Amino acid sequence: MRADTETSVVASIELGESSPSWDMLERLLAVAGVELEARLVPCVVIDSRVLDDVARIRRLSPEDRLAEVANVSRFLAAARRST
Fold first, then answer.
1. For 28-37, what is each residue's pLDDT tens digit?
2. Which among 2, 26, 49, 79 is most buried, taking Cβ atoms within 10 Å?
């Protein structure tokens, strides 16, 4: 097979019996002439656990709040680089 993958492995994926790794998915799609792109898109989460964090954040000093934002920013930047 052109994707360097056994036909039985592809059949297993097609039947929903297994899930391909990211690398295999990219190879299979490349053979099909398609490129895979992934991106992180922020979404609004309506969840009571999110609101629980508000009280914790309000108790932080302004400096600690900035540090918290910096941590989230670094996390998102690293996630973007890994895709």
1. 999 999 998 8
2. 26
